[in-house]
Amino acid sequence: MTYALLAERLLKVGLLARGGFHPQTEDDAPPTCRTVILVGNAGPEFWAHFQTGRRAEPNPLDAWTRREVNRIAASASGWAVYPSDGPPYFPFQKWAQKADSVFPSPIGMLIHPHYGLWHAYRAAICLHDAIPVPARMVAGNPCDTCRDQPCLTTCPVRAFSTSGYDVARCAAHIDTPEGTDCLEKGCRARRACPIASEALYAPGQAEFHMTAFQNARHAEKNR
After folding, report:
1. What tens digit of pLDDT does each residue of 35-94 get?
2. Structure confidence by residue, pLDDT tens digits, 169-220
3. Which alpha helices (H) appear in the chain, and where do they start and end?
4. pLDDT-above-70 percentage for the chain
5. Taking the CA atoms of the chain, what radius of gyration do you get in angstroms?
6. Alpha-carbon separation of residue 35 from 1, 68, 81, 130, 160 (angstroms)
7. CA–CA distance, 135 with 194 (Å, rounded to integer)
8. Cα–Cα distance between 19 and 28 in angstroms, integer?
9. 3-state DSSP assignment of residue 119
């Protein structure tokens, strides 16, 4: 099995191989894993694949992802792990920064020089063998040269600041009529980022993610 072949199989279902690395003890990978390959998406392209394969089931995106990635991982005699596995949880943000040039943005999300904030990590494929993986792309953090940082000033309820992300304030806003724009089109702060605006999620995709966030907050409050 090669990285290129895995990337090809992932691309057929709209997913991307997002780099890889050979884990060391401090990376907190599964004990028998000698290669970690990050799996995710960028921009709106994968949405059509998911829409075709989705089923009427709880957490349809997570379920679809597990079906597709588990199958592809098994074809490589490997296995998949997911951000929702745990506790304990796997350090996906740490792995992402080791595999590719992504950086924490002022609003907390990892920013990519090519994809901006319009990307995600959905799984990692673990292999028993140490296979060659692409070298980590050399690039700087685009936020370092963004003088205005509109992501910190665009949110209508100031949920983002240099102190962090006020989740409760954000969630309360999208529950109101004034929050319809954020709910249907996606987070305004995220949309304000000038990097990779062409990769912006389509409204249906953006609303799906925001509704999932909203439902999760409602479930948490009702526990």
Report:
1. 999 999 999 989 999 999 999 999 999 999 999 999 999 999 999 999 999 999 999 999
2. 999 999 999 999 999 999 999 999 999 999 999 889 999 999 999 999 999 8
3. 3-11, 46-53, 60-75, 92-99, 167-174, 180-185, 188-192, 203-221
4. 100
5. 18
6. 12, 19, 13, 5, 36
7. 27
8. 17
9. strand
pTM for the model stands at 0.94
Taking each helix axis as running N to C, give the angle between helix 46-53 and helix 60-75, from 0 to 180 degrees, rounded to the nearest 10: 100
142-167 pLDDT, tens per residue? Answer: 999 999 999 999 999 999 998 899 99
What would the two tokens of residue 200 be? 């912006």
Q: Which pairs from 206-214 meet CB under 8 Å and 24+ separation?
A: 207/183, 208/61, 210/174, 210/182, 210/183, 210/184, 210/186, 211/183, 212/59, 212/61, 213/171, 213/174, 214/171, 214/174, 214/175, 214/183
| Tokens representing residue 129 in the block | 């063998």
SS3 215: helix
Whether residue 124 contacts residue 81, with contact meaning beta carbons closer than 8 Å, is answered with yes
Going by DSSP bridges, is the β-strand pair 119-127/79-81 parallel, antiparallel, or unpaired?
antiparallel
53 SS3 class: helix
First to last CA, the chain: 45
| Closest by CA position to 85, among listed 70, 100, 102 | 70
